[in-house]
Prior knowledge:
This protein is mainly alpha-helical.
Amino acid sequence: MLPQERSTKAKVDSKTYPLVENREQVAQSHELAIIALSHTQLEHRLYLAMLAFDHDISTNRFTVRHLMDLTGIKSLSTVRRGLEGLLIKLSIDKSDANGGGRRDNAHEFRAYSPIEIIARRRERGSIGLTAYAQETPGDGNHAFSRAISRVAENPMLSRREAQVALFCVQGLTNAVIGERLNVSEQTVKFHLRHIFLKFRVKRRAELISKLLM
C-alpha cells in the first residue's frame, strides 16, 4: 500500500542540492554520513525524502509521482535517473505496483536504512561503491568515523572534494586517488587546493590531523 498522499513536502531545499540536507540527522549517525557521501546530490535528496517520510521505512512504498510531490522535483526523468542510481548503489529496491498502469506508477520503491545499505553492499562485495569509506564505526576505527562525519557535515565541500579529503585520510597518494576517481593527478591537486582553503590548512598533514583529531 502506498503511503497516504500528503501536501507537506520533505524538508529539502528546492533550489540547491547541498552535500547533506539534514545535518542533525547526519550528526546522529555515522552510517548515514557514509551513505550521504556515496550518493550524488540528487540521489541523496530522494533518499532523504523516503527516509524522512515515516519512522517505519520498511513498510513505505513510493512511486515516481509520489517522490516528485515529496521533493518538489518536477521532472519525471530526473527522478527516474536518481532512483536508478540508488538502485545500483543498493540503497533502495523496486517492486511492481499493484495494478500498475502508467509508466511512472508501474513500480514502487522502498528505502533501506543506512545500516542495511552498508550490510547489503558488503554482502554483495560492492562496498567500493562508497569509494572512500571502506570502514564504518562497527569496525572500531573511530577516528576515521569522525573524519567521515566532519566531511559530510561541511556544507562548503563539493561531493568530489569530500571524496578526495577522505582518500587523503586513508593515506592515498594523489596518483592513486586519481585512479580511484578516474581523474588526472592534476585534477586531484586542484581539488586539494580548494579543500585546504575550506579547512584553513596549508598542507595534507594538517588536513588529516584536523579531520582525525
